[in-house]
Amino acid sequence: MTGGTGVLGRPLTERLRADGHEVRVLSRHAQPYAVDLVAGGSGLDAAVAGVDTIVHCATSPRGGDEQAAANLIAAARRAGVGHLVYISIVGVDRVPFGYYRTKLAVERLVEESGLGWTVLRATQFHDLLVMLFQILSKPPVMLVPAGVSDQPVAVAEVADRLADLAVGAPAGRVDDMGGPEVLTFPELARAYLRATGRRRPLVNVPLFGKAYRGFRAGGHLTPERAVGKATFGEHLAARFGAAGSPRR
User: Fold this and answer.
1) Which burial class, exposed, middle or buried, applies to 224 when counting CB atoms under 10 A from its CB (0-12, 13-18, 19+)?
2) Nearest CA to 173 among 102, 105, 87?
3) Are 1 and 12 contacting, i.e. CB atoms less than 8 angstroms apart?
4) Per-residue pLDDT reduced to its tens digit, 33-77
5) How does DSSP classify residue 53?
6) Crossing angle of the two packed helices 65-79 and 98-111, in degrees rounded to 10
7) Which numeric CATH code is attached to 9-240?
8) Does residue 81 surpass a pLDDT of 60?
9) Could you tell me if 190 and 196 are in contact, meaning their C-beta atoms sit under 8 angstroms apart?
10) Strand partners, 27
11) NAD(P)-binding domain spans which residues (predicted)?
C-alpha cells in the first residue's frame, strides 16, 4: 500500500491487518519499504515484488502524483501484480480545480495500465474540513466561500470500503462514496465553532474562476450516493467532546 502512514492509509492498513492480510506500507520514511514514488528506483521494484494487490493512497497537492503513479504502474507490471486499487475524489471530472485535474489524470493512467484495476471516488473527509476551519477561524472574522456546500465522509468508512475492494476482484470504476449529509459551508462552519467553543462572525465571500463555479454547482457532491453513516456533527463531538450538530 502506498501512503500507508497517511490519514486514509493508516486505518486502511489496520483494517486489512486485522482481517489477517499481510500489508506492506510504502512511504518515504516507512521501513523496510521506504520508497520515493516520484523518483522510482530499485527500492520500488523490491517493495512490490510478490504482491497480489496494490492500494494506491499516496498523494501530494504539491505535485508529482502523475509521475509517482507512472512509476508505480511500471513496477507493478514488472512484478505481475494482479490488482491496482486507486482512491480518487468525487468531481474530478466536473470541477476544473488543479489538484482534481491531477487526480483525474492518475485515474486515466490506472485505467490504461493494462493491470486489473479498481477506482473509488469519495467526497472530502471530515478531518479535511476541520483543518480548513482551523485556519479560517484564526482571524476575528471567519470568511467562507459563498454558495458552496460539502458532503463530508468518515475516513474510517472509506477505509472499510477500500479494504473490501482490495480483497475482491478488479471492478473498474465503482460507485462513488459520499457522506450522509450535504450541508452549506456556513452550516458546517457554525458546527465547528460550536464544537470548539469559538465565537466568530461568518462572512460569505464570493470567489471567482471556473473551479469556484464548479464547486458552487455541486460538481464535487454525490447526493445520490450518500452512503456514509457518520455525520460531521458526530465527528466533531467525538473529536472535541462537544455537540457540533449542524443547524439548518
Assistant:
1) exposed
2) 87
3) yes
4) 888 899 887 789 999 999 999 999 999 878 899 999 999 999 999
5) E
6) 10
7) 3.40.50.720
8) yes
9) no
10) 34
11) 3-127
